[in-house]
Specification:
The protein is an alpha/beta fold and 440 residues long. It folds into 2 domains: 4-59 and 326-436, Alpha-Beta Complex (Aspartate Aminotransferase, domain 1); 62-324, Type I PLP-dependent aspartate aminotransferase-like (Major domain) (Aspartate Aminotransferase, domain 2), CATH 3.40.640.10. The chain has helices at residues 4-12, 49-52, 61-73, 84-95, 110-125, 142-147, 181-199, 225-236, 288-293, 309-324, 327-349, 385-396, 418-436, and strands at residues 28-32, 35-38, 43-47, 101-107, 129-133, 163-166, 204-210, 239-243, 267-270, 282-287, 353-359, 362-370, 375-376, 399-404, 407-410. Strands 1, 2, 3, 11, 12, 13, 14 and 15 form an 8-stranded mixed β-sheet that branches. Strands 4-10-9-8-7-5-6 form a 7-stranded mixed β-sheet, sandwiched between helices. Helix 4 crosses helix 10, helix 11 packs parallel to helix 13 (418-436) and helix 12 packs antiparallel against helix 13. The longest helix has 23 residues, at 327-349. It is globular and about 65 Å long. The chain starts with a helix and ends with a helix. It binds pyridoxal-5'-phosphate. Pyridoxal-5'-phosphate binds at residues 51, 109-111, 114, 137-139, 210, 214-215, 243, 245-246, 271, 282.
Length: 440
């Protein structure tokens, strides 16, 4: 593999989360809809939406045009000034969040949104601790990585960041010896209650949860869990932050994942799908009480590019396209009519599939080397030859899924055609036969 782009990348580009000498990045030269292609013209069906952000697919013409028009009109401006696209984007986001969450602080991505949401919660409550779940990802910056509950935290965990972790519900790998979703829900809430009591409720500023945990395994919470967390927060004056960075803006077949669960958080973090990542954007939606804290007391935080006009224009055009083209409804339909049934059939055919779970265009396949003991096909935090073989076969056949440890996630754009979704699922079906050979 050698081209000028590749050689310059290897000489000068330092990549995220990687051992620099051990990676061979693909050189991608174009993308449209649910496909990307490399410099040799090899096309791949994108079942990953990249890092689960191209919710409207690549190259949506109306969003591209909106960015171009905004670039010609007002390419950039300081965040101290109001600008039309930022005002519109804030209005449209506030319209899609529950009543009472009406103010938006814009950031450049999800981690910054988490940094600011936790800072707001700390200042609002006058407390310092932030509680979050094991098996979660909240971003790569200081507080965001410290609230993260996966191995990416370990190297940066200062043990002084004021973060406390607890276990959320996950019936397939229950920490609570549960046999039903109801037991798992009740016991996970009991565990959270005890953790709060033993940490000291008056020391806890916020609980931050991904509404549906994404990278860590798409564990859709059982009915009643999130309302139970909301009740515990109310009881103890704790701010509830719903992290919708990955699960928001259509991914679960609803505008926001909280729409499935009948809860109203105090703060909502978002990024990714809000403008499908065409220009970096994230933010925090803030409720009245927290906004009021900073009505006459300056909020001590800001960003040079907060509410950048190009990013905001992309968000306005993305939400408009999602509305006009029924993209959220399409994601819901894909989940119930196409992806869900196909994955259920795949689970029947392959011993290496321990569980499938998800909704909308947000699905995980949990792979095991022993269906009885549920031994993962790759260890927690690691990979394995079996996972490598399955992913290699997918790529060979032109499919790019999202993989993490022993899981493959089916997370295509919300706009993928039924035919493309079925084509990708067929490739996955064939590749999983390689996993079956590792059943011990
Ligand atoms: N929160 C969640 C739930 C995420 O999935 C991510 C990224 O994957 C982040 C926060 C961090 O977002 P970013 O990478 O834009 O900083």
């Amino acid at each position: 593999m050698s081209s000028r782009t590749y050689d310059l990348d290897r000489a000068h580009v330092f990549h995220s989360w990687s051992a620099q000498a051990e990676i061979t990045p693909m050189v991608i030269t174009g993308a449209k809809g649910s496909e990307i292609w490399d410099e040799d013209g090899t096309r791949y069906l994108d079942f990953s939406s990249q890092l689960v952000f191209t919710n409207i697919g690549h190259g949506h013409p109306k969003v591209v045009a909106a960015i171009q028009e905004q670039a010609a009109r007002l390419c950039t401006i300081s965040p101290v000034h109001a600008n039309e696209q930022r005002s519109e984007a804030a209005r449209m986001i506030a319209e899609r969040t529950p009543p009472g969450l009406d103010k938006v602080f814009f950031t450049n991505g999800g981690a910054e949104a988490v940094e600011h949401a936790t800072r707001m919660a700390r200042l609002h409550t006058g407390r310092h601790k932030i509680m979050s779940a094991y098996r979660s990802y909240h971003g790569g910056t200081h507080t965001a990585v410290n609230v993260t509950g996966d191995p990416r935290r370990w190297a940066s965990d200062t043990a002084t960041a004021g973060t406390v972790h607890f276990f959320g519900p996950f019936l397939y790998r229950s920490e609570f010896h549960s046999a039903s979703q109801q037991d798992e829900c009740d016991r996970a809430l009991e565990h959270l209650r005890h953790t709060i009591e033993h940490e000291g409720p008056a020391t806890i500023a916020a609980i931050i949860l991904e509404t549906v945990p994404g990278t860590s395994g798409i564990m859709v919470p059982p009915p009643g869990y999130l309302t139970g967390v909301r009740r515990l927060c109310d009881e103890h004056g704790i701010v509830l932050i719903a992290d919708e960075v990955m699960c928001g803006f259509g991914r679960t077949g609803a505008w926001l994942a909280i729409d499935h669960f009948d809860i109203v958080p105090d703060l909502i973090t978002f990024a990714k799908g809000v403008n499908s990542g065409y220009v970096p954007l994230g933010g925090v939606v803030i409720n009245e009480a927290i906004a009021e804290t900073f009505a006459h007391r300056p909020y001590p935080g800001g960003l040079t590019y907060s509410g950048h006009p190009l990013a905001a224009a992309a968000a306005v055009a993305t939400m408009t396209a999602m509305e006009d083209e029924g993209i959220v409804q399409n994601a819901a339909r894909l989940g119930t009519d196409v992806i869900g049934p196909a994955l259920a059939a795949i689970a029947q055919r392959h011993d290496c599939v321990g569980e499938i779970r998800g909704l909308g265009v947000f699905w995980a396949i949990e792979l095991v080397s022993d269906p009885v003991t549920r031994e993962p096909l790759a260890p927690y935090g690691g990979s394995s030859p079996a996972m490598g073989e399955i992913l290699g076969a997918c790529k060979q056949a032109g499919l790019l899924p999202f993989a993490n440890f022993n899981r493959i996630h089916v997370v295509p754009p919300c706009t993928i055609s039924d035919d493309d979704a079925r084509r990708g699922l067929d490739i996955l079906d064939q590749a999983l036969a390689l996993g079956d050979r590792h059943i011990g």
